[in-house]
Amino acid sequence: MCIFVLMQKFKIDRRETGLFSEQQLLLTYNQDTFLPFLENVFSLETIERQASLKQKWFSGEKRDLLQRVFEEQYAKAERSQNVSFNLNKLKESNTYTITTGHQLSLFTGPVFFVYKILHTIKLCELLSDKFKEHHFVPVFWLASEDHDLEEIREVDVFGRKIRWETDQDGAVGRMTVEGLESLKSELRLLFKSNELDEIDLLLSAYQGKNLAEATFNLVNKLFGKYGLLCLNADHKDLKRTFVSVLEKELLSKFSFDAVNLSTDKLKQEGFKVQVKPNNINLFYINGLKRVKILSEETGFYIEDKGLLSEKQLLDMLHEHPECFSPNVVLRPLYQEYILPNICYVGGVGEVSYWLQLKGVFDAVEVPFPLVQTRTSVLYIDSIIHKKMNKSGLLLEELFSDKEDLKRRKLKEQASEELDFTDISAASDALSTELMSKITSIDPGLEKYAGAEIARIKNQIEAIQSRLIKVLKQKNEDQLLAIDAIYERLFPDGMMQERVLNIFSMCPDGKISERIDKLYHAIDPLDPDLLILMEVQK
Questions:
Q1: Are 240 and 264 in contact (CB under 8 A)?
Q2: What's the confidence (pLDDT) of residue 5?
């Protein structure tokens, strides 16, 4: 069992890691580059400007409705003092939200799920302290209408794949939690009995009538004490306020044109794009099933509904707005439409696709939010820290190519033994002298001389290769340790935060303690890669 003693904090400029693309680095360090595609660059100087824009646009009626929906969704949930405080503050016109969101990943999925939430919480606290005339509330947007089950159904804990086997298909947030109890039991088996107290509390919270409610309860259990509010926007009343935009989309396909215009401009400037818009950027949800709404010459086509006239579809929209679901193009607009939001916090990939969306917001005159890249973390546990010390591996060396690093370390360990410089020079001199001597006696022996000299060189190279092999065997432990370090920190060549799960970081079962350490370590205004190292006595 890992005895947690201390967490040391380091940071490194993302530009020195080789882990991020040039576009991602610009979004993190120099958003000015993208000003044609952003309303404002994220900075402390633009916060008040963005708040003023949102305050003028976000009506009291929208705020009242949002408050009612939150009260409804928290009716049976455990409310911390900070959650109750933030819910009450939302009634006030000078209260704004900072939002992040994610899919409903099994047991929270990759640990960047945790990092982005903590970043958002810390940013709200910082802004509320700096701008005392305003208050900022962290919101976690549950991607309950997403239908990509494969992306959320599996989690890696201590190297073991835990997979939710279900025949359900469609919007994951509406799926029942049937089968999750057996997965909870499977997870419990990975911990010792004396480590299960907090694990059991968390897993008990991970339940509800559907996956959205279960995820809501788990996230609330993990982060409620910090005042985080969770929102499931798959709600009839929230969708009803968005009907005018949905109707505009169906009638004019405005988002398709807006995104394509931004996409063309981004490509012209050499930037990559992530979103390919549909002709209509809406799905239709019937129960669980989520299918595209297709535009036809004579109307609209929806699977299981058939061909519909314009009037039929609009009647359905006004009667059942909850059945209409924004895709990746319109979801951000829906978010900003129903929240007094001024900033979205996301990963470098998420933030990139917002660059294509400003025209969508402009078309319906909704303020485009600030966007900020979340904190990225490299977490070095005490076991890996020990391996690094034993191998003499420095933090800055972690971002080298692994095989190059192993060669350098091998050379450092046996620099004299592997230095054949003098021998190679002597061999070259001997070869020259032999060739000269032999051919001076009999020029006809040149071919013979060349063959013998080549044989001598091959023998020397064979000796060198044998010595390298022997040295590798002698240093095998160090080389294996480097392999283990890289596999833990960069599994399958990926960033650790995209694979590691929060439960894997807590073999002692102390989830809340570890999250609290992460909370204190994160600085939402520092764009550098955060490196956290556990040191065990």
A1: no
A2: 57
Closest CA to 351 of 53, 7, 37, 12: 37
Q: What gap in Å lies between CA 430 and CA 56, rounded to an integer?
A: 87
Residue 69 identity (one-letter amino acid): V
CA atoms within 13 A on the CB side of 349: 7
**Quick one: how far is CA 79 from the chain centroid?**
27
Query: Hey, which bits of 447-501 come out as E strands?
Result: none
pLDDT at 419: 64
| Angle ∠(479,477,190) on CA atoms, nearest 5 | 95
> What does the domain layout of the chain look like in residue ranges?
6-19+58-241+496-535, 283-326, 396-493
Pairing of strands 529-535, 160-163: unpaired
Residue 415 has pLDDT above 70, yes or no: no
300 bridge partner residues: 295, 308
Which residue type is seen at 7? M
**DSSP alpha helix (H) spans, 19-154:** 22-29, 44-57, 60-73, 81-89, 112-130
pLDDT digits (tens, 9 = 90+) for 124-135: 999 999 999 999
Q: Is residue 188 within 8 Å of residue 200, measured between CB atoms?
A: yes
pTM: 0.89
Picking from 130, 134, 98, 131, the residue whose alpha carbon sits closest to that of residue 117 is: 98
Task: Please give the DSSP secondary-structure letter assigned to residue 378.
Answer: E
Identify the burial level of 267 via C-beta atoms within 10 angstroms of its C-beta, where 0-12 means exposed, 13-18 middle and 19 or more buried.
exposed
Q: Are 227 and 86 in contact (CB under 8 A)?
A: yes
pLDDT tens readout for residues 306-353: 999 999 999 999 999 999 999 999 999 999 999 999 999 999 999 999
Q: Provide the edge-to-edge strand list for the sheet that holds 377-380.
A: 6-12, 529-535, 377-380
Give residue-wise pLDDT tens across range 224-267.
Answer: 999 999 999 999 999 999 999 999 999 999 999 999 999 999 99
